[in-house]
Amino acid sequence: MKYDVVIIGAGQAGLSMGYFLKKSNLSFLLLDKSASIGESWKERYDSLTLFTPRSNSSLPGFKLDGIEKIYPTKDEMAEYLSTYTTKFSLPVKHNTAVYGLTKLDDTFKIMTNQGEFLAQNVVIATGPFQNPQIPQFSKTLSEDILQMHSSEYKNPKQLKNGSVLVVGGGNSGAQIAVELSKERDVYLSVGHKMRFIPMDIGNKSVFWYLDKLGLYRANVNSVIGRLVKKQSDPIFGFELKLLLKNGTIKLKPRTTSMENDAFKFEDGTKLKVENVIWSTGFKSDYSWIDISNVIDQNGFPFQERGVTPVKGLFFLGLPWQYSRGSALIQGVGFDAEYLFNYMIEQ
């Protein structure tokens, strides 16, 4: 069978696309390597709470239950995505890992561990969190020091006794550092100046204000969008800021190398710890795409608002695909609707 659309990935991006396709007469299928919907959320660390409130954490057509200004947990999001899939009867084929994508004439061929699938259109919705990005010098670290990427971290019980260095100053690194500081010495290594903004102002989420000011949906090519994109992401909330101020968590500059199992920092100082958590982000892997003019020399897709130079091939769920909100749960719905309308008009 040749589908009108095959969506690769059944996370929030893929499900959003499925929601709009369900409104059409197009045949479509979602392929996902996981065993169940929401699995990637379930695998995150136990204490993970979103920094967007419920009012900004819903997909198209179905609100996340609960008090809108309360921040959902990762398990609530996993359950919500599962319910969303069932509610709209979205066709998902699980345990299906894609390892190849080619195009011949007007037909895409998707190669998977479950066989081949043919499609007129393909939406790649695998998201930005694919392969952990860890510095090469981590390989020189002694086995006496426990190291893991933040995607492997679940709770403090995983760690050895003793101090811990969290490398990376994003919101995940901030939440993990705060959690660990309750029972051990914590050092946080960050290569840029951190900016902190409140979760709420008055009785409204900061995202309500960001939306009203035009920052949330400012497109990547606008003056506002370009200015926002140049800045590092802010840390939401002031808990980490207070712990840094009172010395509970000790701030270190960028980690640059290792020397005799001591971490070396940009200012020349060194530190020995029993544990290190690399909260250093992820890198995308599109090596399985065997189609010209799709991926640039740096590994990023050629795309404008998700539309590639290859007819019928689209991306969804990329950071700054169109706006700051593109990487967030609610924002991916806006991008999905745009791609759906574009696809229908072709």
From TrEMBL:
Domain of life of the native organism: Bacteria
UniProt-listed Pfam families: Pyr_redox_3 (PF13738)
Source organism of this protein record: Ureibacillus chungkukjangi
SUPFAM superfamilies, sorted: FAD/NAD(P)-binding domain
Keywords: Oxidoreductase
Protein's name according to its UniProt entry: Putative flavoprotein involved in K+ transport
Gene3D superfamilies reported in the protein's UniProt record: FAD/NAD(P)-binding domain
One function term, GO molecular function aspect: monooxygenase activity
Keyword Cytoplasm carried by entry: no
